[in-house]
Amino acid sequence: MSDLAADTAVHRHPAAPGWYTADLPPHWNFLTPSGGVLMTVAMRAMRAELDDPALRPIGANTVFCSPVPHGPLEIRVEVLRRGNAAAQVRAALSSTTLPGPGLEVTATFARQRTGPEVLDVAFPKAPRPDDAVSLLDDHPRNPHTRRAFFENFDVRLAIGDPWWESGWQGGTARHGRWFRYRTPQLAGGAFDALALPPIADTMPSSVVQGLGPDLEPFHAPSLDLTVHFLEPTACEWLLVACYCRRASGGYATAEAEIWSEDERLIAYATQTMMLRKRRRKA
Q: Which of 45, 179, 245, 266 is the most interior residue, by most CB within 10 Å?
């Protein structure tokens, strides 16, 4: 069984300051590795460079420049500023087997502070994980059983329809799934915040839900992904509730709320994606 923490581990280059390497196996592929998983690799290098457990991720933005295959990776990290309360960091990740840039991440890590509390959003209307339908069925068009990425999770339908089956309606661009890592991603009794980008990078389902059953099959590679890390949790079941705000001109913008099973909003993410028709097999 694959382990995100082990698969995205980074190693400091002994002769080059701020230079890290990783070796990502194919367990996290859609067609190529999940952009969220690659973001996690880059942020692990950032965390290693800061080398301060009290600095936790607050927000991160990733720009995807070109596809990155699984296999050997290199990550170059630059600490832009390091203050008493927060640090801003930049990382560039690329494949060692292909030329050109892969992705770049900018992130803020900060120390826990006291301050006012505001929450102006409600937990979505969705079944609990034990009452939700598993998405790991044997339907031949079910993407959850045809992509290596989903093999790492117990994943259940919370909002929307199983669009690979006949008879669904669509029309509302909202979709939600409960995710639980098969290998728990816990560190010191709390869920590892760097395990959030992979499940945040699952927003194309909201586009499918909005387009309805007459849609042409398409791919939705990420152009960017932003994750705000709001609060820690010890829960393993996480609800990713996605909403496509707009799709037009071959691009789509979506957002996702990530809730813990005890109804705490632990992260918020946004994404821009390119919508590309799938090539028909000859």
A: 45
Q: Which domain holds residue 270?
A: 128-282
Distance separating alpha carbons of residues 256 and 206, to the nearest angstrom: 9
CB atoms within 10 A of CB 279: 8
- Rounded Cα distance, 113 and 85, in Å: 8
Confidence of residue 282 (pLDDT cuts 50, 70, 90): very low
- Condensed to tens digits (0 to 9), the pLDDT of residues 58-110 reads 999 999 999 999 999 999 999 999 999 999 999 999 999 988 899 999 999 99
- Which of 121, 74, 136 lies closest to 241 in space, CA to CA? 121
Q: Which residues contact 109 (CB under 8 A, 6 or more apart)?
A: 46, 47, 50, 52, 55, 56, 57, 58, 86, 87, 89
Are both 231 and 256 inside the same structural domain? yes
pLDDT, tens digit, 9 for 90 and up, residues 160-209:
998 888 888 877 999 999 999 999 999 888 999 999 999 999 999 999 99
| 118 assigned to some structural domain | no
Do 60 and 109 touch, CB atoms closer than 8 A?
no
CATH number of the domain to which 166 belongs: 2.40.160.210
Number of domains in the chain: 2
Q: The whole model's pTM is what? A: 0.95
> Which helix (H) or strand (E) segment is 50 a member of?
helix 35-50
User: In which residue are the tokens 């992705």 written?
Assistant: 103
Is the same domain home to 192 and 64? no
